[in-house]
Amino acid sequence: MRSVFLLFLAIAAAQPAGRVLVLEHARLVDGTGRPPIDDARIVIEGERISAVGPAASVPAPAGAERVDLSGRTVLPGLVDAHFHLDNSPPDPKLALRQLANGVTSFRDPGQWDEYYAGLRATIAADGLRGPRIHTAGPHIDGEGPAYPRDSVVARDATEARQFAERAIAQGATAIKIYFRLPLGSAKAVIDVCRERRVISTAHLELLEAAELFTYGLDGIEHITSLGPSLLPQLERERYRQAVLAENAARGPGRYAAFAGLDLDSGDARALWAVIGQRRPFIDATLAVFERRPAVPADPKDTPELIATRARGFQKMLATTRRAFEAGGRVVMGGHSSVPFAGRGEAPWREMELLVDAGLTPMQAIEAATASGAAFLGRARDLGTVEPGKLADLIVLTGNPVSQIAEIRTVERVLAGGAWVDVGKYRKD
Ligand SMILES: [Zn+2]
Fold it and tell me: Ligand 1 center to residue 39 CA distance, Å?
């Protein structure tokens, strides 16, 4: 939290006092899901939006700096709900490249906060006002953790509670439960999150989705989190025991298991009903799971394996759609490095895949803006283009509402009312 505060001071210092910026003649897609405004005017005072609407009803203050964005589309800055700095050592330039591609806020759902020191230093040195970093502390996992380096191991509910409290005291705005954590300990973490008003999220797999949503879990990472909860009980227990014996058992069977899921079974219908009541955030991270027919992930892959993975992936899309239709609040989680997107482009690919799953382009935009901001716990100041919100905006040459792939036409990025040097951060 302290480093966040220092960053805030650095930003405040760099902000020219009283600067008024007016963006005009753009098509505005404001993130709320409302229809676009064709000739919009957006007035920005300092780091915040002060007025927005059709040009005819929003006057431009005298003396303001005016930018003509005719033919362009303006959207709220994108929120990537699932970002990793990737690799060791950490790669801060990836976050800046994503910023240049329109991602003005992100969450790393499971990492020691210290990992972000380098990125924070670069942001401060360059006088940037983004990306806005949200951390969750390390995963809280059980014994035999899936990712030892990024985890703390809680042996009982008391330890789980302590780890959650400590991460929140150190600035975490969410806590991620990992699948080896026993059920009682997972509930203890959810209790802490509720008491401290931070978001609880989870990579479930071995934990029952319906039970934890009912208990108060706010969201899930990876659509695969829901997979085992949708398996017939016998297969579910077999999968649990295999993974408990060896984490690597998740790999080979996952796509095959997904390919065979029945999304209309009794357990599935019960899960959709709980999702409808509790409206959890669904961070599907589809791009990291994407597999295509006839494209091997490894030269040794057999044609049968490639086909099974592609079918499993199609079922992941269908599961995401069902969770969305049931009332789940789908967000966009890019997951940094994914099979079918270039460096820094995973968030764009994820939005395309949300449309492949069955969301409209407008719903995919909402997932990546307003819903993402709500999942960060920042609905009050991020995620839509409305008076009072932080001026994190992106300018596109294309129109992603008619064709989601045009999300890739990001031309300019405004973070906290200041333009980002897009060319500079797209170099590496
Ligand atoms: Zn991840």
Answer: 39
